[in-house]
Amino acid sequence: MKVIAAILALAGSAVAFAPAEQGSRASSALAAEKPFSDALGATAPLGMFDPLGLVSDGNQALFDALRERELKHGRVSMLAVVGYLTTAAGIRFPGAENIPDGLKSFPALMETSDGMNVIYQMGAFFAVAEIVNRDATWLDKEPAEFIGDYRNGALDFGWDNFDEETKFQKRSIELNNGRAAMMGIWGLVTHELIGESILPGGYLPGQ
Q1: Where do the annotations place chlorophyll b binding (predicted)?
Q2: 111 is known to lie in a ligand binding site
Q3: d(CA 199, CA 19)
Q4: Could you tell me the pLDDT band of residue 85, with boundaries at 50, 70 and 90?
Q5: What's the pLDDT score for residue 139?
Q6: Is 191 within any annotated ligand binding site?
């Protein structure tokens, strides 16, 4: 097994450090064989990862719907990781100093009326965020520039000044950071549940 693992590791390393031209030819070949192989998020070495074949027929509408959900979950997960690590570091809003971190924060909030108010506010925020974070045609008649573009003519921190290559790069960064965050928050919560810390100093939230 060790020999097999070593061979696979060497093969992966060879692909990772392959010349750009060779990687480009391989990507072009894949694009010709598989739908969406050149789409945003088709990252080496897996390329267009669709093991269930959900969009193997080239269904653009389904691909866009799945991409929108991937972006949404990734964005939420990035916020979740930041919030989880921030509270694990001991940072609290004024008045919430005695609220534990991790999953135990929810039952602690439900014990008091002030805590329940916080939960109600969270619910209201989620509802508003769900309504606003979409291509709101009632706010902006211009169509979204891409899937996940929720600026709606109101938010623009210089995006329109970027060239197409820079835009593609920044969208790739967001997508891949979101993917990492989805795995990250799940890993943090899972380790909390099993009682094994993965944080510096062996700190375990919720204890």
Answers
A1: 75
A2: no
A3: 37
A4: very high
A5: 67
A6: no
Q: What residue segments make up the domains of the chain, in order of their start?
A: 60-194
CATH 1.10.3460 fits domain 60-194: yes
179 is known to lie in a ligand binding site: yes
Residues 111, 100: Cα–Cα separation, whole Å: 12
The answer to whether 101 and 87 have CB atoms below 8 angstroms apart is: yes
Place of tokens 């391989």: 26
pLDDT digits (tens, 9 = 90+) for 39-77: 999 988 888 999 999 999 999 999 999 999 999 999 999
Answer yes or no: is 73 a known binding residue.
yes
Q: pTM to 2 decimals? A: 0.78
177 annotated as a binding-site residue:
yes
What is each CA distance from 201 to 80, 134, 165, 180, 187, in whole angstroms?
21, 41, 41, 23, 17
Q: Any known ligand binding at 70?
A: yes
